[in-house]
Structure formats: structure tokens, C-alpha cells
Design goal:
This protein has eleven helices and eleven strands. With 295 residues, the chain is α/β, with parallel strands linked by helices. The strands form three sheets. A six-stranded parallel β-sheet has the order 2-5-6-7-8-9, with helices on both faces. The protein has a three-stranded mixed β-sheet with strand order 1-4-3, with no helix packed on it. A two-stranded antiparallel sheet has the order 10-11. It is globular.
Length: 295
């Protein structure tokens, strides 16, 4: 397993609840992956602490078990909408793994979004859940260039390793989805980069790719951090962003039309699903119990 180590600042909290109205959970609040573009840094989410000072919901397992015990209908439990369930601290804390054990025991399904190869540690539980219900792992890919990946996603495994993760999951019978986002104008918005990512998807047997358009979102909190990193790694680029995009929330690559044509042609040629509504339905819909009996 690829070893990405980072000195992690953490504090522990007793959460009052864990499961959202749409069956989403975030065991950790904040993240240490260091992705320069992360929307979860945005001030609108009202995080009362520094983003890299991760709040650990130490009673997450108990809260999840209680919540699932009271649900009459089985459903998919979603991890990772705001914080990756496999941040480096999970290696020791194992809260995500223990929650997966609860989900398996309670016969629910699971959908995970991650950039980390630590997900492979739990492949046994994912297979167990998938045999009974449904388990899907979504992996984010932003660039086919490991050197660029190290700049824009500095504290998580490189794209080449994520490609291996996708293949290992597929070989283990765990269905996968690739999140093709975000596309950062003038950084990873080239046809060459897109084709590199799509080649990874083809080689790994990915049949669903989620793309929200060829651009990114910038809100207060996220924008300032992103521009700071642009000044550090791409001098002069933040000024170009200010000049071209101003305070716009949704920022589109000037190459968006060309990139979408390449993406559309690939999906049609390879039989890959790209419809956002269909993919989200797939991620959220529970399949019937797969276990069979003799009668």
C-alpha cells in the first residue's frame, strides 16, 4: 500500500448526530489531503476550526448503529461528500472500517468517494456488503500527470496509484465510478490530460464517469486558499483568474467545448455512462437482497 504520511492536527468531538436526511455521513470534518481546489474549505459550510485541523467524531460508530437500527427501509449509506473517509488518520483510527462493519451487519449498502488507496484495506468488507446488498467506490481523478497531481493534491496517493486501486476494486468485483473533477482552467484543462485520464478509465474497466462540466467552483474561503496556491506554484495565474472570472462562483475552462467533445466521443465509443442523473441514481439506489435461500 502506498504510504502517504502527513503530520495531522486533530481534535475529538462527541457528535449529536451522524446520518443526514439523505443517508450521508462524514466521520471526519476537515481534511489533510491538501487539495488546492477543495470546495469544502468554503466559509458557507461554517466550519468552526481550521480545515486541516480535523474534527474526529469519536462516537460515529455508535451513532451510525443506532440510526440504522431504527430505519425500517434499507438504503445506501454515502461516505465522503464533504471529507474523504480515508484521510491518513483513518489508518490508525479505523472509524470508517468500523462503520462499514455496522453497515454490513445491518444489511445496508454503501457508496464511498475517495482519493486514497487506503480503501483497499477494507476490500473484504466491501465485498461482503456487495454480496448482500451493494457497495460502490468512487475515485476522483483530476490529472494523468503524477507530477501535477503532487502539486494540486499534495498529501494523497498519485493518479498512477489510483489507477491501480480502480483495477484492484474491479478485479475484486466492486463496481467503481470515476469522478472527473474539477477541471482547473489553464492547469489540467488540456485534451492531452483528459485523454490520459480516459485511458486510465478504459484500462481499469470503469463503466461510469461522473463529470459536472469542464470547470470548477470558487467560493469565499476556497477562492482565497486556491489563489494563494496559484501564486505559489503558478505565478501570475491568480491575476488571470481575477481578470477573466472575477467573483464568479462557477468557473468554466475556455477549452470546455473541445473537452466535452472528446469526452462524449469516448463515452459513446466505449459504452461508458456519463449521464449525471443516471449515475447518481445508481449510487443512491439499493438493490434487493442478493442472498438466496434453498426455499
Amino acid at each position: 500500500m502506498h504510504d502517504v504520511r502527513l503530520t495531522c492536527s486533530m481534535h475529538y468531538i462527541q457528535a449529536k448526530s451522524l446520518l443526514s436526511s439523505k443517508n450521508g455521513i462524514n466521520i471526519y470534518r476537515g481534511c489533510t489531503h491538501g487539495c488546492i481546489y477543495c470546495d469544502s474549505r468554503s466559509l458557507c459550510y461554517q466550519m468552526p476550526h481550521d480545515f486541516s485541523d480535523v474534527a474526529v467524531k469519536e462516537n460515529a460508530v455508535e451513532l451510525l448503529d443506532d440510526a440504522l437500527s431504527r430505519k425500517r427501509r434499507k438504503g445506501m449509506i454515502g461516505f465522503g461528500s464533504m471529507s474523504d473517509p480515508y484521510i491518513p488518520a483513518e489508518r490508525e483510527l479505523q472509524l470508517t472500517r468500523r462503520c462499514l462493519e455496522v453497515i454490513s451487519r445491518r444489511s445496508f449498502g454503501v457508496s464511498l468517494i475517495t482519493k486514497s488507496d487506503l480503501v483497499l484495506r477494507d476490500i473484504d468488507l466491501l465485498q461482503e456488503i456487495n454480496r448482500k446488498r451493494k457497495a460502490v467506490v468512487s475515485v476522483t481523478l483530476t490529472t494523468a500527470d503524477d507530477a501535477l497531481c503532487k502539486i494540486i493534491e499534495p498529501h494523497v496517493c498519485a493518479t498512477s496509484r489510483r489507477a491501480e486501486v480502480l483495477t484492484e476494486l474491479q478485479d475484486a468485483g466492486i463496481p467503481t465510478v470515476v469522478w472527473l473533477c474539477p477541471i482547473l482552467p489553464y492547469i489540467n484543462d488540456t485534451v492531452e490530460n483528459l485523454e490520459g485520464i480516459l485511458n486510465i478509465c478504459r484500462e481499469a474497466g470503469v463503466s461510469r464517469i461522473l463529470c459536472f462540466g469542464f470547470g470548477m467552483t470558487l467560493r469565499e474561503g476556497c477562492r482565497e486558499y486556491y489563489y494563494q496556491k496559484l501564486d505559489e506554484y503558478f505565478p501570475g495565474l491568480s491575476l488571470r483568474y481575477v481578470r477573466e472570472f472575477g467573483q464568479t462562483y462557477s468557473v468554466q475552462s475556455p477549452n470546455a467545448e473541445k473537452l466535452d467533445a472528446v469526452f462524449s466521443a469516448f463515452c459513446k465509443r466505449e459504452g461508458v455512462e456519463r449521464d449525471i442523473t443516471k449515475i447518481f441514481s445508481y449510487l443512491s439506489e439499493m438493490e434487493s437482497d442478493k442472498q438466496t435461500t434453498l426455499f
